[in-house]
Amino acid sequence: MPMFADALQWLVMPISGAADHAVSASVSWHGRTMSVAWGGLVPIAILVARFFKVTRRQRWPQELDNKFWWHVHRGLNYSAVALACVGAYLVWGAEAYAGSVRALHGWLGWSIVDLGVAQALGGQLRGSKGGPTDPRRDAQDNSIDLRGDHYDMTARRVWFERVHKAAGYTALTLSAITVLLGMWVADAPRWMWLGLSIWWSAFVYTFVWLQRHGRCLDTYQAIWGPELTHPGNALPVVGVGIQRFPPCHASEITQEKP
């Protein structure tokens, strides 16, 4: 028991080794909201969007356009941005801390909040969908054709995907750094550092495992399948490490397990 008590005492001590850890309620809740938003919700949102466009029980490519990832990705990211705004408000004008690390933490923090808001609003620039499930329609709601920014992979859609993906991974990287800087400024207890290390290690392991097992399927094929009739299948994928099955005729399609 003495050994357990000593270990517990060591864990609750600040990282600097100070005798106690005292922060204001607003700073404490700022850290909690930001950690949940950027250290929890955003990483999960990215994992789901990258690796779960096709779920395990889905009979792809017979079953297409599974919107599970879409709803989870949007819901988590919107929640993260909302929490981040609350977290920023909690320390608005706070002057309890000073120094270069504090200044860098603040600058990065505001940059990430701005980037998160831009990502949420920028989603409206993705263009039209098109394709068999969302054709263009006239004023009488009659189907005209299958044209759409996503289905045709127009320049607008390609650039949207490039910017959206790059901004998302940039926000993820900067958020991890910013949370660590915030913990250093607040002299967070050692158990927080340990817990955060375990969490990020688990995230990286999961990301690598899913990537190596071919779970990163091209969004276009996840929605419309690998048939040659879909124009986007003849164009290069947008992104790194994305799996795409060779385009084929409908008669050649068999059930795959991406």
Task: Give the percentage of residues in beta strands.
Answer: under 5%
CATH architecture: Up-down Bundle
Gross morphology: elongated
Number of domains: 1
pLDDT averaged residue by residue: 90
Helix and strand content put the structural class at mainly alpha
Describe the protein in words:
There is one protein chain. The protein has 258 residues and is mainly α. It has one domain (23-252): Four Helix Bundle (Hemerythrin (Met), subunit A) (Up-down Bundle), CATH 1.20.120. The chain is 57% helix and 2% strand. The chain has 8 helices and 2 strands; from the N terminus they run ααααββαααα. It has a two-stranded antiparallel ribbon. Strand 1 and strand 2 form a beta hairpin. Helix 2 runs antiparallel to helix 6 (155-185).
